[in-house]
Structures are given as C-alpha cells and as structure tokens.
Design brief:
globular; single chain; Aminopeptidase; alpha/beta; about 35% helix; eight-stranded mixed sheet; two-stranded antiparallel ribbon
Length: about 325
C-alpha cells in the first residue's frame, strides 16, 4: 500500500535538507549505555582473544571506542571467520549474540578457525536504539569506497588490514534483527528522508537469512537454518512466496546483491557470507532466545565449514 502520511520531519516529497537531518538528530535520545552494557563485556574477553581498538567515533571518541576481538593464536593455515554485530545498533541480539558466542562457544572452534569479531559496529545506534548514525546515514548501506559512515569505514579498514597481514576471509556472519519498529518508525523515516512515498511492508514472523545473490551457497545457508530451528521458529514465506519483498529460495532464506547495496555482509571477498535476521518481537521468544539464535547461527555455519573441510574433495 502506498502511504502518503506526513512524517513529522521534512516536507512531503522532498529529500531532507541538512536542517531536517539536524531536526531528526535532536529527536534522538540516549536510552542505554554502550560502555556499561557492551564495552564492559567485551574488554574482559581480552584474556581469551586479542582486544583491538580499531577506531573511535569522532563525535564522541571517549564514549564510542570501536572494539574487535582477534584470535590470539593466529595460524595462517586455518581459515578465517569474520563475525559482526550491531551494524544497526538497535538490533540488540546481534551485539549480545556475538558476545555470547565468544563467552560460550568460541573455544570449541579455535583449533579449526581464526576469528575476527566486531560485536558492536554502531555504538551510538546501540545507545539511541537507532538504525542510522547521527548523520541520518544507514551504516548497512554504506560499505563501499569513501563511505560516508565512519562506522562502516572503520570496519572496512580493519578487515582490509587483517587480510593484508594474513589471507582472505573464508566466511562472514553478520548478525541482525528485523523488528516491528522497522515498519513503525525506520522505513517511514527512510521514505521521508529520501522524499519518496512510504510503501508499507510486513515483518516476517521468525528467523530468516539473507545470502549473497552472486554467491548464494545454499547448503551453507541450509545448515544455519537447521541449527537455528532448534532454538527459535523460522519465518515462513508470505502469500507471494517472499520475505520482505525478496523471493524465498529455500526455507527461511532470501538473497540480496550484498556488494551492490553496500551491505556489511559484502564488505570482504568471503566465499561464504550470510546476514542473520532474528525476530525479537515475537511472543514466542525472549531476549535470551534471540541471543541464542544468533549463537546457533554461528555454530551452524562453523559446523558446516568444518565438515566440508574434512570431507573428500
């Protein structure tokens, strides 16, 4: 349905001016603490992983340091796995799922893989429970050369440095959520920002994955879905055989052109990449279920890759 309802900021049919973006920024409020809820959990993990501060957001560097965890006993004979969370800061289980994986499961896989884990790419978005950064830019549409989003640019530089020092990443698992607020706030705001009509959509009831159109890796995606299905329900296709407007290629899986869209999952040349989408607003789940679903997605991916490495070619 075409919705022409006026968003509270801007002029209908016109892209936002800098003044409109500033007006939007003024509506954003700090609602939780990145340092207390996230950084305080990442820093103790330095006993297990090398703690890297790969940058800090320039608008408040003392409040928003950017942290990543890198395997201590790096071995270039092992494949490298990149795990990212909190590219959209409001998607809480991406952040805490990545941390929970390190706390509970990473040690089981360190003999097989090197890890680079960035649990919270957008800490201001985490604090304000927001999809965008303070400049009304979506970091998850900004993974390209000369990115306007410093969150994206910093992570891209970290990955480039790691790959230059070692070898290309084999797999990238980017942890996300699809929430009810996507339709209630973020997509209407996007339409207003860009000066286009808001096209109402629907929120999938359950977990799903977004693979890469150019390298879909269906068996890899299927293994993840099977692992997550033990923890939470998988989103069904809608009446058109789609999820969020994209054709379902198998249970709980759609594909996007990750590089063309500037998505985080397309930032490297990893053969295997996926974006998880947890549904935290379901009455069937709680916050811990969502975190565990993210952990199950990572475990499913790693188990598949390890089994494939051991199978005859």
């Amino acid at each position: 349905m075409n919705q022409n309802a006026f968003y509270p900021i801007g002029t209908m049919g016109q892209p936002w001016s800098e003044e409109d973006k500033q007006a939007w920024y003024q509506t954003c409020q700090i609602r939780r603490s990145y340092l207390e809820e996230v950084a305080s959990k990442i820093q103790p993990l330095s006993e297990q992983f090398e703690l890297i501060q790969y940058g800090a957001l320039t608008y408040a560097p003392e409040i928003y340091p950017l942290f990543a965890l890198k395997s201590n006993n790096w071995d270039d004979d092992k494949p490298t796995i990149l795990i990212t969370g909190g590219v959209h800061g409001y998607e809480s289980s991406g952040v805490h799922g990545a941390i929970t994986f390190v706390q509970t499961k990473a040690s089981d896989y360190e003999k097989f893989f090197n890890f680079i884990i960035a649990p919270c790419v957008s800490p201001w978005g985490y604090e304000t429970i927001n999809r965008w950064n303070p400049s009304a830019i979506d970091p998850n549409r900004s993974f390209y050369h000369d990115s306007p989003a410093e969150e994206s640019a910093a992570l891209m530089q970290l990955v480039e440095d790691i790959e230059n020092q070692h070898k290309p990443i084999l797999a990238h698992i980017d942890l996300h959520e699809t929430t009810d607020t996507d339709e209630l706030e973020f997509r209407p705001a996007l339409a207003a920002r860009d000066g286009v009509p808001y096209q109402a959509g629907s929120i999938p009831d359950g977990f799903y994955l977004v693979g890469d159109t150019l390298s879909p890796q269906p068996e890899f995606q299927r293994a993840i879905i099977e692992s997550v299905a033990k923890v939470t329900h998988i989103a069904p296709a809608d009446g058109q055989g789609q999820i969020i407007g994209a054709d379902v290629t198998q249970q709980g899986v759609i594909n996007y052109p990750t590089k063309a869209l500037g998505l985080c999952a397309g930032l490297s040349h990893a053969k295997y990449c996926t974006t998880t989408e947890v549904y935290p607003d379901s009455p069937q789940v709680n916050a811990d279920d969502c975190n565990q679903a993210q952990v199950a997605a990572i475990v499913g991916a790693l188990d598949y890759l390890q089994a494939k490495a051991q199978s005859p070619s």
